[in-house]
Amino acid sequence: MDTTTSPAPAPGYVHGYSGREARRLGDQADALAALLHDGTSFPAGSRVLEVGCGVGAQTVHLVSRSPGARLTAVDVSAASLDQARARVAETHPGASVDFVRADLHDLPFAYGAFDHLFVCFVLEHLPDPRAALAGLRRVLRPGGSITVIEGDHGSVFLHPDSAHARAAIGHLVALQAAAGGDALVGRRLRPLLTAAGYEGVRAAPRTVYADGSRPELARAFTLDTFTAMVEAVRDEAVAAGLSTPADFDRGVADLRRAAAEDGTFHYAFFKATATNPA
């Protein structure tokens, strides 16, 4: 089922909507599925809303882990929804997912329409994540649950350490802030959910650590996910006067160096769950 409403313009998405970005999102979701989705499954027949499904990178894992749930996936981008629909059709033929184009601030659903909400890598792009979380309570039934997952670029540690790599990451953080987002939002999940009126909030880090003993993880996350994300904002960072081309390229090279046999890379995602007061 596909439903279209007239969404408001989306906040600036610093990563862009290129095919390369869609592949990066898919690589990230697949590499981290066990880490991020562990403990998340929804009962058969339950009504689940994925808020900000994007290209469906997480949608396919929700379908896989909760095959009997009634899943609705919403996003503001029609092009992203087309990719999400195709991704689900390819990986889970016959799966029943309702794709709806709408702004998460103005969802076309009735009060208490869903039993569970899943929000992954969405808050980082919003100028007021607390207000967004508070607004989502309208479509979540009393006693229903919300699961939120976000990253935190301030959690990066790497070896060999590199001031250039840390600066390049900082430029991405600055660009995302200029677009109205917060690349450090992971550390704020518990206070945000509490301030938005949810109860029973529980939050904890989900740590990614890659070294020479985990070459596949180093490739899939350190290189294809994180370094690719930083590298993608090179031209924007240079144009904004945040870096010279040479300095930014040195930072990217040093991030790649951390994926070598004798390198290490650490990153923390944060996952939180809470309930809508009865």
UniProtKB/TrEMBL annotation:
Residues 49-146 form the Methyltransferase type domain. InterPro entries: Methyltransf_11, SAM-dependent_MTases_sf. Pfam families: Methyltransf_11. Keywords: Methyltransferase, Transferase. One of its GO terms (molecular function) is S-adenosylmethionine-dependent methyltransferase activity. Gene3D superfamilies: 6.10.140.1580, Vaccinia Virus protein VP39. GO terms for biological process: methylation. SUPFAM superfamilies: S-adenosyl-L-methionine-dependent methyltransferases (SSF53335). Coiled coil: none annotated. PANTHER family: TRANS-ACONITATE 2-METHYLTRANSFERASE (PTHR43861:SF1), TRANS-ACONITATE 2-METHYLTRANSFERASE-RELATED (PTHR43861). This is Methyltransferase domain-containing protein. It comes from Actinomadura chibensis.
